Amino acid sequence: MLIPCYACESRFRPDEYFLACHDYDRGMDLVAWTCPSCGNRDDLRVLPDAIGFGYPRHGRFSVQDRFRVPGLRRRRQDLRLDITLDKEVWRVPTTLRQWA
Ligand SMILES: [Zn+2]
Fold first, then answer.
1. Where are the beta strands (DSSP E) in 13-94?
2. 67 in a structural domain
3. Which of 15, 47, 82, 92 is deepest in the core (most CB within 10 A)?
4. In what order do the strands lie in the sheet with 21-25?
5. What's the CA-to-centroid distance between 23 and ligand 1, angstroms?
């Protein structure tokens, strides 16, 4: 299973892909991802069995597209999101932000 970058069309194994997640926004429930290949930043939501792609709209993250990743699970912690697939876990820390 390979997960694509929609900017440069590079494809990544799940461990490469989820290691590139670096900022969990708990309020919007989205993860920031920076492509290891082209440096493009994308926003995504980890869903059961899928990655959701979209964009923030009216203060919420609106999922427009889904990429199926069978077995993908998520658990929201206080200051991070745990992403699990099979027996692997990636922990994405929350960056606290001020909402004006
Ligand atoms: Zn890319």
1. 21-25, 30-34, 41-47, 50-57, 60-68, 73-76, 80-85, 88-93
2. yes
3. 92
4. 21-25, 30-34, 41-47, 50-57, 60-68
5. 17
- Report yes or no on whether pTM surpasses 0.85: yes
Report the number of distinct structural domains present in the chain.
1
What separation in Å is there between the alpha carbon of 25 and the centre of ligand 1?
21
Residue 88 lies in a domain: yes
**Overall average pLDDT of the 61-76 stretch:** 96
Q: Residue 99: what pLDDT? A: 58
CA of 84 to the centre of ligand 1 (A): 22
Residue 61, domain extent: 3-93
Q: What is the pLDDT of residue 98?
A: 59
Is residue 64 one of the residues assigned to a domain? yes
pLDDT at 53 exceeding the cut of 90: yes
Q: What is the 46 CA–ligand 1 centroid distance (Å)? A: 18
How many Å lie between the centroid of ligand 1 and the Cα of residue 8? 4
Centre of ligand 1 to C-alpha 97, Å, is: 26
Task: Give domain status of residue 99, yes or no.
Answer: no
Of 96 and 94, the structure prediction assigns the larger pLDDT to 94
